[in-house]
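Example protein was shown:

_____
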Amino acid sequence: MLSPEENELITRIGQSTPMGNAMRRYWIPALLSREIAEPDGPPVRVRLLGEDLVAFRDTQGRIGLLDEYCPHRRASLFFGRNEECGLRCVYHGWKFDVAGTCVDQLNEPEENQFQHKVHIAAYPTVELGGIVWAYLGPPERMPAAPKFAWTQVPETHRHVTKVIQECNWLQALEGGLDTSHAPIMHRLLTDNARRGGIKPSNPYVRAKAPNIVVDITDYGYQYVGIRALGAAEMHARTYHFILPFHQIRASSTERGYPADAGHIWVPIDDETTMVYNWAYSRTDESFNDEDRLERGLGNGPPHVDQTTFRSKANRQNNYLIDREVQRTESFTGIDGINVQDRAIQESMGRIVDRSKEHLGPADKAIIQMRRLLRQAVKTVEEGGTPAGVGPSYYNLRAALEVLPRDADWRAILAPDIAREKILQTV
């Protein structure tokens, strides 16, 4: 459990909050590249860490991420004209380039213009893996670009979507890091059930409850759930947590090909999260149209409105729970693995009261994550550099296997984490 004060510390991410200041030291997903695919196309609203912004791609293909509100009379630049290497406010014609510099003032005679004195807040961006990433922190502290392994593969071999979750970012992150719930909440009741989920014949479901091992590293931690399977085997699945809100896990495509996958839980504000879902193929097989629908997970067009990025199954319609399906096909009666996650995490309230929790050994990864977040806040407050901003996470991969009970799972499943890089095991 956390005290109310600790809970406030790591959940609140607005400007000038301790956690907000720490989070602004990392590259943060702002929007999908395809949302502003065309030069001089329509600008897009972006709300990030409680700030209202607007994104656009200029005539030369450069990306601007600006304060949404024109510094003249505070009109929204969402209605602006994206033209000739700048975004022009339609109210009085003030125009801003991607760096936030005012380059024209149509409502002022040429001899009276003072554009050289006007600047709007603008944040640097990079495009990687089909995502536009933004850096909202001090310019002199900008970290290395977020070159995760999945951002470096061809577009044909990766897939990225996003969906709004109606709760605080931390409980969404905690749900993703919680490996003990997966074969319980996401299980199917029969192998022939026509739903997304884990079949009862899968070793993940047949194995016993997990023992959690967490290896603290300079980027966050590697953790593994080790489950006894029969008399002589174990089911082992490794994950990575990269500060402040990334997860990597072993997965597969909708057609069953090996893949790495994960989520990024980005705070829109204190009570709303944008969840980025990514996967990349670890074989020569590319993603096909069926894979990209994400039917089993519930993140693609059948489940999520691709203009608003809001889930069609939501709090207002009880996530379309079907009690007959719950009785005969799936553990929850809710269609889509990540829809199930959103339903349960949102059911805790907008910001869960962690002072009322009762945590156990199965929650070790969550406990350690909270400690790392508090340490990141403290480090930034003391003027230091928080963990996870360096490039040590670039080549991380995850794995799952059924192994002999006495096997060295680190040597088999985690060769990319050299033992000397493990700062502490808990």
